[in-house]
Design brief:
Length: 92
């Protein structure tokens, strides 16, 4: 983690969703790639918020990869429904 923050030649940091959602501030990053969805939509949002938070000076982007007709699409649909039910706004 320290090299990602201090060394400009380090351009990628790979984290599991559980690690990326806990207590990190990654304002050095500008892109988040979600490669496999999890059932807990709030945990996924929390992981994204590690990059998009106070102190971020760059435009941030979230890339979520989904494949049609897969279990992942079903998980994504449940996430969207849960977020809408909780009063969430925005694009999903």
């Amino acid at each position: 983690m320290g090299r990602f923050k201090a060394d400009l030649s380090v351009r990628v940091l790979l984290l599991s969703m559980s690690k990326g959602a806990q207590g990190l501030t990654l304002t050095e990053a500008s892109h988040v790639y979600l490669l496999h969805p999890i059932m807990n939509a709030q945990q996924e949002a929390q992981a994204v918020n590690r990059v998009h938070r106070i102190g971020q000076t760059k435009q941030t982007y979230v890339h979520k990869y989904l494949i049609d007709n897969t279990v992942e699409m079903g998980i994504h649909a449940r996430q969207v429904a849960a977020l809408k039910e909780a009063g969430g706004k925005g694009d999903y």
